[in-house]
Every structure is written in C-alpha cells, then in structure tokens.
Amino acid sequence: MRTVLNFNSKWAFTKLCDAVPTAIDKKWCFVNLPHSWNAIDGQDGDNDYYRGDGYYAKSFNKTDLPEADRYYLEIRGANSSADVYLNGKQLAHHDGGYSTWRVDLTDAMELVNLLVIVVNNAANDRVYPQMADFTFYGGLYRDVNLICVKESHFDLDYYGGPGIKVTPVIAGKDANVEVETFVTNGKAGQSIRYTVYDKEENVVASTETADTDITITIPNVHLWHGRRDPYLYCCEAELIEGGEVIDNVCTRFGCRTFKVDPENGFILNGEEYPLRGVSRHQDRWQKGNALSPADHKEDIELIYEVGATTIRLAHYQHDQYFYDLCDEYGLVIWAEIPYISKHMPTARENTISQMTELITQNYNHPSIVVWGLSNEIGIGGSDDDLLENHRILNDMCHEMDKTRLTTIAAVSMCKIDDPYLQIPDLVSYNHYFG
Is 244 a catalytic residue? Predict the structure, then answer.
C-alpha cells in the first residue's frame, strides 16, 4: 500500500546562495512549510518585493522511510518555477506556480540524503503570470509530501493527476459512472477492485476486473445540487496482486447536469440556479499565499455566509483542499489558469502545460463547471498569435473534458466583436465602476 509522508517540517531556507548547496549552512533560517519569502514585503504596497531565487534544503535518512519500491516527491505549490536536486543531482524543473507536480527520487536516493528545491519568482517572458494586480509570492507555499509506492502503482507522473478519472452520466433516475484508472508498471495477473460509496460510506457498487476503464451504475442516484444539497459519492480503486492490495486511490465525485441558457441563465439539474458570488484570491495578511487549512476553511465559510452560490477562483489553480471545500459546500466554480493581462508569444507552451495540469488535477470536482482560458488578455487588442493560443487552449479543454464549458473574462473596454471573444463557449465581462 502507498504511504504518504508530510514533508513540511524543518527546511533550511536562504535567499543568499551562489550555487546549489551541497550541505546545510547553520546560518540559514529554518522554516516549516507552507512558507513564502514575500509574506511581508509583498504586502507593504511598494511593489518592490524580492523576486529571485529562494533555496530550501532538507536532509533525511532512507532508513527512516517506509519500505517501498519508488519514492515520489510531491510539491503542491512552488511559485513560480522550481528545480529539484537530490544529493547534488538535478532531477526536475517545473514552470508554473499554482499546480501539483511530482518527482521520482528513487534512483538518486542514498542512505543519507540532501534534498534541495530552488524556487524562483523572478520576472521572465515564458511563465505566466507576469502582469497582474496581485503579488507573485515566492516560496514553497503549499504542502510537500513524499509518496512511497510499489513498482506497480496508480500513476503519479502525468501532470500531477490523481490516477483516477470519474465521469458520471445521468440516465433518468440513475447515473452511469465511467471510471478510468491509470496504472504504472502494471503486470499480468493484476486486477483492480472498484468500489463506490455513498455519503454515509455504504457500498453502492463494487466490482473487480482487469480493466482500467469501466462503467458502474448508481440506481436512484442522489444528485449534487449546489448549496441546497451538495451530495458527494466516493470512488475507490484498489490495485490487487496475488490477492493483496498493493496500491489504492480514491476520489469524491458528484452527479449533476448543468447547462447555460441565453434566456434563463445557469441551469442545474434541470432547474434555474442563479449564480451570485465572489472572486477569491489565496493570500492572507503577513502570510502571503502560505495559507493553512484553517485559513481556507474560514474563507469558504465567509463566502457561504454572505449567501454566495458561485466563486470565481482567480486567477490560477487553487489549493486542492479549497476545491474539496467547494464540493462540500455546494459552490459552483469557475477555474482558470493565470493567462492574464499581457500575452507573451514566448509563453504559449506554459499556457498549455498549466491548463493540462488544471484539468488533469481537478477533473473529478463536481463544483467546477467552466474552465477559464484567460483574463483581460485583450487589453491591447488581439493579434494572430493570441488568437491561435486561445484556439489551442479551447480545443484542448474540449478534448480533455467533454462535460464542461470554456470561458473568458474580458475587460470593459474590449469590443464585443473582438475575434478572440468568439472562441470560448461563454464570455464574461469585468466592469470597473468608479
């Protein structure tokens, strides 16, 4: 079975390094994650906060870890680019500060190890965002975990995804739940046991098969219906070898239908469902973006208290815990990538990778109904490169997810006949009064 170890405690940190360190200097400060080095200077209003490299180092012994075949480092948020080194060897580079990504440490691991993560939030022309009205906080500002698994395991490599994809299709009073699992290094003779649980953890359906793609029927399905009834099921997949469960993954999901009608607005499960809500960022006073679970919970409770039915999660991928809360509280969600304000022809690949991560990691959340392609990107008008970038993203969203719509946020002065507004399924305008 997989073991997930939280790796948040006791990281040595400094901004003053000329090269990747080979040992921890006792003059460095020690921090626990989540951490941002811009928690103070990024909030003083001067817009002169430090943007550059930050070095995080942690030592650990392999003998202190659970016995496993593979060890994956999971980084849930490093803004905005980062490199991972183990015992002086560079193992990975990642661009994009708001998504989960993982690194296989196994082959570089020794008995005694020095793990170094170099995070960088300096200005550049290849990673979004670079122009916006919020701080680009640097740091390891979300959880870091170590995932210990067998050689055969549910996928941990593809764009930080959960290794399981659930698509409920409503059929009358029932739901046909399409479940896909993704197995790395699978072997002949292995099987997968799929189990669907209801909200009270009663088994709704269970089957064991060698197939990685199956359909499970939920009779008399209980619909996820926003704030009124945010009902959630859970699907668990267990990888079985020789009668033993060697890995498992699970995900919550909700069964619902929705559409957007030009005359009647948002329709949830066949009923009009007015969307009134807020746009939410992920920072706190003197913490920057290094929020605790309690901070996220307080945010959702305040939003819920004012009567909101929807949240736009601006302008990037948020913490997985917050999407989980949106599912639980029944808030309808707009999720987007930080393709914002200024189009950069040299950063097209980064929009593609960030959108791939956003959809792969968040596909199972019933609260999400639209993928946001960009925000106010047409301030300076659209050109051929911007249009092509949007067409690529729009087509990719529809290919990866045939159940949801795409949208764009345009700024007030953007003409309604601008060609880039014809690309997504929906268009929204940001109006600034006063």
Answer: no
